[in-house]
Amino acid sequence: MSPGGGVASAPMDSLIAASARALAAGDALGALKRVALRDDPPALALRGIAMAQLGEHPRARELLRRAARGFGTHEELARARCVVAEAEVAMAMRDLGGSPRALAAAAATLEAHDDLANALQARLIAARRLLLLGRLDEAAAALALLDGHALSPPLAAVAHLTAAELALRSLRVGPARASLARAHEAAGRARVPALAAEVEEAQAALDRPAARRLFPGGETSLGLDEVAALLASDALVVDACRRGVGAGDAWRPLARRPVLFALARALAEAWPGDVEREALIASAFNTRHPDETLRARLRVEIGRLRALVAAEAGIEATARGFALKPRDGREVVVLAPPIDGDQASLVALLSDGAAWSTSALALALGASQRTVQRALAELESEGRVRAIGRARAQRWLAPPLAGFTTILLLPAALPIE
């Protein structure tokens, strides 16, 4: 939320000014005490920001909208500040479906009125929203708009946190650590306990296991540094976290080609041995009753996979089935998520502590709402997620995942080209 909640029109009366100072210091209750009984637009806006800091997001959104409507046509600066505050509330509610144009227009208005602090806040919200949606290139471009500007300590801490997550989603671990160090320093200057706690959690997550390397008969945990080193090596890596096949700079995404990925993983797990045709059919087509139609389809899909990875490996037919033959003496490595199950990415999103709507989950995962609804129903039956609210107000939550980081399971966790 914009530090100081600068949404009041000038000149501010003493209670409004005191409430804004309390918000800037993270004292939401102190801010509310000063304006709780007032319904003028500046007070409504500050009440909305305070309610947001207390986690009462629906009420915060209602108050901010009332404030925006209450400001006159000549008070476009105050209305723009309300738009920025409401955009941050929407992001906290994981309401990601709205158009970003209103926020961009508010940022332009703020810049035109020389309110650079709130304009930068708007730009930062836009970058964080894009990051949540997994649109990494656009998030990087939006974050770059903040370069060269002097940010207040709270904004600087959030900006560095965002840069750190962007770097991690691209598996650039060194830059991520540097951004987290800057975030830690800025959070110390900001003196906002919640912000300092968020930075500390991000730093702790960086050192937790991020994936499992599978071996015949066993597995070992890998940190992000080790995963990044493997992906940068010459090894042929079948990555079940991000659903793709890579070797060095080459990356073949297979998230939208589940049959090919299932075949690649089965062949990689059996390397240097082969896999029976019946086992490949069971892995790729989810059936234990192969017939001639499925055998023919298997040959077609193996041909497609062979063409896709031709530069890194061959796929040879054997008496029993097929075997993976990496080129140039490459090692074959299988990376598995730190948690099992087909819905690992969905669980990873929900474990961030926020309450997500089905539509926001669908946007972030690039899936249909119906697909997400089916997955949520399955996870709910297993007790792994829970719903709050009903109908359009329904949101989904999952308990935090302790002991490892889920960064490799988040949407579009791919290198920025």
Describe this structure in words.
The chain has 417 residues and is of the alpha+beta class. It has 18 helices and eleven strands. A six-stranded mixed sheet has the order 2-1-9-3-4-5. Strands 6-8-7 form a three-stranded antiparallel sheet. A hairpin with a 6-residue loop joins β10 (386-388) and β11.
Would you give the CATH topology of the largest domain? Serine Threonine Protein Phosphatase 5, Tetratricopeptide repeat
SS class? alpha+beta
Q: What's the number of domains?
A: 3
What is the highest CATH level, the class of the largest domain?
A: Mainly Alpha
Total of helices: 18
Beta-strand segment tally: 11
Proportion of strand residues: 5-15%
Series of secondary-structure elements, N-terminal to C-terminal: HHHHHHHHHHHEEHEEEHEHHEEEHHHEE
Residue stretches low in confidence (pLDDT < 50, at least 5 long) are 1-11, 413-417
Spatial separation of the terminal alpha carbons: 32 Å
Gyration radius (Cα, Å) is 25 Å
CATH architecture group name of the largest domain: Alpha Horseshoe
What is the residue-mean pLDDT, rounded to a whole number? 88
Globular, elongated, flat, extended or rod-shaped: what is the shape? elongated
